[in-house]
Write the structure tokens for this entry.
Amino acid sequence: MSDAETLFERIIAREIPADIVYETDDTLAFRDINPQAKTHVLVVPKKRYRNVAELAAADPRLLAEVVTTAAKVAELEGLTRDGYRVVFNTDEHAGQTVFHVHAHVLGGEQLGFFGRYSGQGG
């Protein structure tokens, strides 16, 4: 992993503004600036890991907190009645563009199927 700071680390440090939805001691949830659904919130651990596999191997408790935070965001955003999606993109071919693990919480509308390349990142 590069020592260069990621965009998310700068958001966590409050160097870059973000529309923060929810925060715990170890996680931060904020709206995606390029939403792919009516509701699109990113959940990041404050400690940097490259992707979800690296996080799971190094700190399963923190991974569980990221998922718990995603569920809390869904509740706060009113997504629990009709459903929501939580997605982790892992590495470039999956669409990961910021190499600081993050969960996408998507909902607020009928979501389509996924898996085919659309030319959009995540």
About this structure: The chain is about 25% helix and 20% strand. The longest strand covers residues 39-45. The chain has a mean pLDDT of 91. Residues 60-76 form the longest helix (17 residues).
